Amino acid sequence: MRSLLAIALSFALLHAVVAAPEPTPKEEPVPPEQKGSVVRVNSTNQSYDFLRPWSKEAPFSRRGLGVLIDGRKILVTAELVENSDYIELERADSGEKSVATVQVIDYEANLATLSSPDPKFLEGMQPLQTTTGVKTGDELSVLQLETNGTPVSTRALVTSVEVGKYALEDSGYLMFRMSCPLQFRENSFTLPIVKENRLAAFLMRYDSRSQTVDAISSPVIEHFLVEAQHQPYKGFPRAGIGFSPTRDPQLRKYMKLQDSDGGVYINQVDQNGPAAKAGVKQGDVLIAIGDKQVDPDGNYLHPIYGKLSITHLTTTEAYCGQHVTMTVIRNGERKQLNVELFRRSSEDYVIEPYTIGKPPRFYILGGLVFQELTRQYLREWGTNWLKDAPQRLVYYDRFQSDLFPEKRKIVFLTQILPAQDTVGYEQLNNLVVTKLNGREILSLDDFAGL
Amino acid sequence: MRNPTGGYHKIEFEEDPHQIYLDAKQVEEDAAQLQKTYSLPALQRL
């Protein structure tokens, strides 16, 4: 009886499998206009080892697709080529290969342009123009290449347009979220996404379980391409403020806010950032940027995307060197502050938010290894570094603007290499240095006596 | 490295052990051996 039941159950399961076949991705042939616009990009990357700052990690390969954006430049994500030792372009039609070099790279916006030293390599290819006319509900096409070089596209539905995290923790830019059943293919680390033969986005992350795509949006791509035409590259500006909602009626009453004011509470001001230089203070309530009213959650009304974080206004819609007017309420009074937007370089921070493509600085004295504290060092503790890394160093990183308003670096003892001079000290690590031979230490140059 | 005090480098820290002393002459003499032992391409990159 039990075996009969088992057989019946097996048939039922088999029927279920036959009746509900795997959904096939909505793949389509690629229009002729887009066929000659993509190239394979093969990059061999090798990052520096911040725990052993004198050496590099093992090399690894990343393979993605790049897009020709004008006669000579290939656009890719920065993640694809960061810390690259060697980059190779491969044409989809002929399989012809060429070495490539990074022209401009922006780790915050996660974009880079590449060029080939061979002027004939890209001949005959069609550059793609960008489009900014993408909105929620649009259907886009994700481009991929078969192993034999045949282009295929998969439909992707834009489910939301919002400001979200890019490759680095602090970098929030406009992002397209999409639903898309992508198949695995080689060279899929990053993929171009098009709308009506125009570049609409770049795939940055794909979750195969939920079949969702996070993509770099075309407004960010356009901003990057405009800036990349100028040397030196200025990047994306930041206002240099942190804010929290003002939904709490008690807070609104305390801050003397009218219901019609909206506004967000500024809880952090980067001491050396644009907002601080214009006089914005912690405790102000930001109620407008230019003619855009700020709601209690920190959004404004965008003509295409609807409610959008004000971060987009000051990072992507505005360029470095532009001025914006911030209207704040301070002690019940309205103030208008003229903010000149700029970007602080990673090196400008006390604790550099990222150190990619350049080696870490170090100094070894009698087996004691000293470095300048960087977030890249803290990231060596993995994705959970905020919890797992030495908490004193994490604290310094998170509150560096308040703790260290002056220009300086944090020099610390990272580890001990057991030697005759370090007997008894082997267990010491992650200690911040204050003085050497009675002299205050504000950088590794101070330490080395330079 | 400048000005060792009485032949010793005094390094001060925020936390325990708060200070370490290194024999400046000994450190200098041991540098080459340290580099060899740990296959260090250099003792500094600034």
Stretches of chain A where pLDDT is under 50 for at least 5 consecutive residues are 1-23
What is the β-strand count of chain B?
A: 3
Strand content of chain A: 35-45%
The largest chain-to-chain contact, stated as pair and per-chain residue counts, equals: A-B, 35 and 31 residues
State the distance separating the first and last CA atoms of chain A. Answer: 88 Å
Report the C-alpha radius of gyration of chain B, rounded.
13 Å
Calculate the mean pLDDT score of chain B and round it: 90
What is the tally of helical segments of chain A?
12
**CA-based shape of chain A:** globular
- General shape of chain B: globular
Instruction: Report the β-strand fraction of chain B as a percent range.
Output: 25-35%
Helix content of chain B: 25-40%
Task: Give the averaged pLDDT of chain A, no decimals.
Answer: 89
Fraction of residues in helix of chain A: 10-25%
Which structural category do the helix and sheet elements of chain B fall into? alpha+beta
What is the β-strand count of chain A?
26
What series of H and E elements makes up the topology of chain B?
EEHE
Can you put this structure into words, describing what you see?
By secondary structure, chain A is an alpha+beta fold. Chain A is 18% helix and 36% strand. Chain A has 12 helices and 26 strands. A 6-stranded antiparallel beta barrel of chain A has the order 8-9-10-13-12-11. Chain A has a 6-stranded antiparallel beta barrel with strand order 2-3-4-7-6-5. In chain A, a hairpin with a 2-residue loop joins strand 22 (362-365) and strand 23. Chain A starts with a helix and ends with a helix. Chain B has one helix spanning 24-37; strands spanning 8-13, 19-23, 44-45. In chain B, 13% of the residues are buried. Chain B has a two-stranded antiparallel ribbon with strand order 1-2. Chain B is 30% helix and 28% strand. The model of chain B has no long low-confidence stretch (mean pLDDT 90). Chain B has 1 helix and 3 strands, in the order E-E-H-E. The chains are: A alpha+beta (450), B alpha+beta (46). The A-B interface holds A 53-55, 359-368, 392, 413, 417, 419-421, 425, 428, 431-439, 444-445, 448-450 and B 1-5, 9-15, 17, 20, 22-23, 26-27, 30-31, 33-34, 37-38, 40-46.
